[in-house]
Amino acid sequence: MARHIDILEHPQTAIDVATATLAEGLPIGLPTETVYGLAADATNPAAITRIYETKGRPRFNPLICHMSDLAMAERYAVFDPISRKLAEAFWPGPLTLVLPLRSDSGIHPLATAGLDTVGIRVPQGFAGDLIRAFDRPLAAPSANTSGKISATSADHVDDDLGERITLILDAGASVVGVESTIVKVEDGEMRLLRPGGLAASEIERVAGKALKRQKKASAAIEAPGMMASHYAPGAAVRLDATEISENETLIRFGTPDIAGIEKAVAVLDLSAAGDLSEAAANLFDFMKRADATGAATIAFSHIPDEGLGEAINDRLRRAAAPRE
């Protein structure tokens, strides 16, 4: 089983043990403000291979590389003026920028799936401190089996990957609860590759221009979280439910009128008050709880597709997509 270290009680021990483990080329469970990541040295091909093997992740699906700050990111990628403006406004925070790699970048092609671009994020808090101490970028997808529900606590990581990794750092529940927003700037235009923990409206406010959304699914995988089926529990997922059938668990937002609610195996409230930030923070944990009820289907009531609701609905649509 993986060793747990509480970073709030033992921050220096956590950094010392984590940097030693990372230097051995081994992945660790790393808390961030978005979700827990499965982190390893982005310059070490053996370490990156272990990420893919541990998650069972397709190697054509690139990994986000986490940096300690903007100065470190500049050592590995080239910033255009808009990307730099966004980085200065939102880093550290839940924003990933897809940028051209520098020709002398030490990031291994396995981490970028052979692309000439790299997704970079600067996380808040302890993760940034650890990267600064390690002085190398950390490739860190979410710490869960590929395609399944993302981890937002150390226990989630342990339940899923505890037999496959040696170290999990524990910082309690993730504050944001969904992965980062991913943006790519091309020819002066911003494209939203994945909605996430930073609302699109905030990005547009700082950049002074609109984000272009994907009009339809693209065959090209430019960033994590773009596969059609993702974030899936064991149960089937049904969206915009207005009534409940037998053998369904209901996850609702606000307190909508749901016909047949008495039939539900269980009822969970993402946010009784209709708060999208609270709903995002609870999303993956509640999906795991709903899956544990043993219901055949998890039914979600309607969630507004605005602000953080855009990220929540993106995750739910992928969770409900047909599975291979």
UniProtKB/TrEMBL annotation:
It comes from Rhizobium freirei PRF 81. Gene3D superfamilies: DHBP synthase, Threonylcarbamoyl-AMP synthase, C-terminal domain. This is Threonylcarbamoyl-AMP synthase. GO terms for molecular function: ATP binding; double-stranded RNA binding; L-threonylcarbamoyladenylate synthase; tRNA binding. ATP binds at residues 57, 61, 117, 150, 194, 231. One of its GO terms (biological process) is tRNA processing. Its EC number is 2.7.7.87. Belongs to the SUA5 family. It is found in: Cytoplasm. Required for the formation of a threonylcarbamoyl group on adenosine at position 37 (t(6)A37) in tRNAs that read codons beginning with adenine. InterPro entries: DHBP_synth_RibB-like_a/b_dom, Sua5-like_dom, Sua5/YwlC_C, Sua5_C, T(6)A37_SUA5, TC-AMP_synthase_SUA5. The keyword Cytoplasm applies. Keywords: ATP-binding, Cytoplasm, Nucleotide-binding, Nucleotidyltransferase, Transferase, tRNA processing. It comes from the Bacteria. GO terms for cellular component: cytoplasm. Signal peptide: none annotated. It catalyses: L-threonine + hydrogencarbonate + ATP = L-threonylcarbamoyladenylate + diphosphate + H2O. Pfam families: Sua5_C (PF03481), Sua5_yciO_yrdC (PF01300). Residues 12-198 form the YrdC-like domain. L-threonine binds at residues 34, 66, 121, 140, 142, 180.
